[in-house]
Specification:
This protein is α+β, with helices and mostly antiparallel strands. The chain is about 35% helix and about 15% strand. It has a two-stranded antiparallel ribbon. About 0% of the residues are buried.
């Protein structure tokens, strides 16, 4: 059961990375159009760029924390699925038989008579 669950999770992880499309990366200017070869304006000062310069850095911590939380929760769920199945537990062995020695009368194979032998008797 454990191997089946682990194999299923590994297959799902491999297929999800192969099937999900990657997003495109865009290299674009947030300060306006890119400069042209005939543009004679001076480049913007560092102070003029302001908040647009730090556009991508607002949610970096949230994204990392969300990814870590999703990984931990997914690991807990996957571990519970892999280890939560019923287990076979062998029953305890039966108690040993209670035995004792007893004198009994048994037939004699040589002359057709009877004689007494000490035999082990168990319940």
């Amino acid at each position: 059961m454990k191997k089946t669950a682990f194999s299923t999770l590994a297959l799902a992880a491999a297929l999800s990375t192969a099937i999900l499309p990657a997003t495109n990366a865009f290299a674009q200017y947030y300060d306006g159009p890119p400069p042209r070869w005939d543009d004679r304006r001076p480049p913007p000062r560092w102070d003029d760029r302001g908040s647009s310069r730090h556009h991508h850095r607002d949610n970096t911590g949230r994204v990392i924390a969300g990814g870590l939380a999703a990984g931990v929760i997914g690991g807990l769920i996957g571990g519970a699925i892999a280890n939560g199945g019923p287990r076979y537990v062998e029953p305890p062995p039966p108690p040993p038989p209670r035995c004792w020695m007893e004198d009994r009368r048994v037939p004699n194979a040589y002359d057709g008579g009877w004689h007494i032998e000490t035999l082990r008797v168990c319940n």
